[in-house]
Amino acid sequence: MRTHTLRRGLVALFAAAISFGAITQVHAQSKQDNVLRIGYQKYGTLVLLKARGTLETRLADQGFEVRWTEFPGGPQLLEGLNVGSIDFGVTGETPPVFAQAAGADLLYVAHEPPAPSGEAILLPKDSPIRSLAELKGKKIALNKGSNVHYLLVRALESAGLEYSDIQPVYLPPADARAAFERGSVDAWVIWDPFQAAAEEQLQARTLRDGQGLVSNHQFYLAARPFAENHPRVITTLIDEIRDIGTWVEANPDEATAQVAPLLGLSSAITRKAVIRQGYGARPITPAVVRAQQDIADTFTALRLIPKKLAIGDVIWTPPKTIAQHPE
Q1: Please, which residues have CB within 8 angstroms of residue 289's CB and are 6 or more apart in sequence?
Q2: Hey, which of 46, 98, 198, 317 has its CA 20 to 30 A from 233?
Q3: In DSSP terms, which residues pair with 36 in a beta bridge?
Q4: Which CATH number belongs to the domain containing residue 50 in this structure?
Q5: Could you tell me if 121 and 98 lie in one domain?
Q6: Solute-binding protein family 3/N-terminal domain location, by residue (predicted)?
Q7: Residue 103 and residue 121 in one domain
Q8: Which residues lie below 8 Å from residue 261, measured CB to CB, with a gap of 6+?
């Protein structure tokens, strides 16, 4: 695929949603003034937070209702944020970069510690491939613009390959797994719990995970208007996420027992994903901004993003009174 075509396709993933959002967002927000709409994926602390119900209790005191929407991946979630269907969500490292490149009006509000083993390049159990160099010319499934997109770029670089040396097959997780199972692709780059499920159910073999290549931070993002208009709601939400993350880290077995039925996965698969995740939501630091800037600069150099981005321009800072006295 030619570079300019790929670039248009990646950025268009978000731009189409944003153009529609320009028409619908104001109307959507006007009807949702006292509602916090959260987008989540099939992993992470938000799954447990949704089940626990403590956020709803705390925000009810602030006059807010909470609504939840599940998304198959970060790019799709950020589409939802830009069309005004959600106010807040969690994604991996790369989706916010492409969303910002497409003009998304979002803010990074917090992040989780690194979890590099929670994403990987997987191979079928009987694959003859034994090295990254052998991926040259191969079909590799991945979710376009997701965290694993950056992992793939870095892994190929480490083997002396260009992104143009492989054949990317852009599919959301469910479709990618189907293609992987039937042998339509040679490898699959994916994150937990889909990664853990493939390892356990399909005996998929890990060619390379993120260790030594990427941080695989999870980022909590908000629509800028919502964060600026309701800073106390955002602070309360991050406080709840931090609390439940601390509990999960200290109680992985109990967390697994709660999460497994919510995900519809076995305890063995769920525990593997739980253990590999990072916990402890915290403010965005200068070091994390630099790491995100490196990701943005990498995709700019590859001409997958049309212009240089400034990650520092989209970092949320709560008002001092909120930061010092969160509810």
Answers
A1: 311, 312, 315
A2: 98
A3: 66
A4: 3.40.190.10
A5: no
A6: 35-255
A7: no
A8: none
Q: Domain residues for 140?
A: 116-209
Dihedral angle over CA of 270, 119, 137, 294, nearest 10: 160
Per DSSP, 315 falls in state: B
Q: Please state the pTM of the whole predicted model.
A: 0.84
Say how many domains are in the chain: 2
**Domain co-membership, 198 together with 235:** no
**N-to-C CA span, the chain:** 51
The HSE-up count of residue 254 (CA atoms within 13 Å, CB side) is 8
What is the reported pLDDT for 136?
98
Whether residues 240 and 184 share a domain: the answer is no
157 and 92 within one domain:
no
Q: Where are the beta strands (DSSP E) in the chain?
A: 35-40, 65-70, 88-91, 106-111, 119-123, 139-142, 167-170, 187-191, 205-209, 219-223
Residue where a domain stops, chosen among 209, 234, 256: 209
Q: Are residues 89 and 136 in the same domain?
A: no
- As a residue count, the chain comes to 327
Whether 106 and 96 have beta carbons less than 8 Å apart is answered as yes
The residue from 209, 231, 264 where one domain ends is 209
Q: Over the stretch 39-85, which tens digit does the pLDDT of each residue have?
A: 998 878 898 899 889 999 999 999 999 999 999 888 889 989 988 89
Same domain, 44 and 135: no
Q: State the amino acid at position 115 in one-letter form.
A: A
pLDDT of 90 reads 94
Going from the first residue of the chain to its last (327 residues), give the mean pLDDT of each consecutive group of 10, the final group possibly shorter.
43 42 39 85 87 94 95 89 92 92 93 96 97 98 91 97 96 96 98 96 98 95 96 96 94 93 92 93 95 94 90 91 49
Phi/psi at 282 (nearest 5 deg)?
Answer: -145, 160
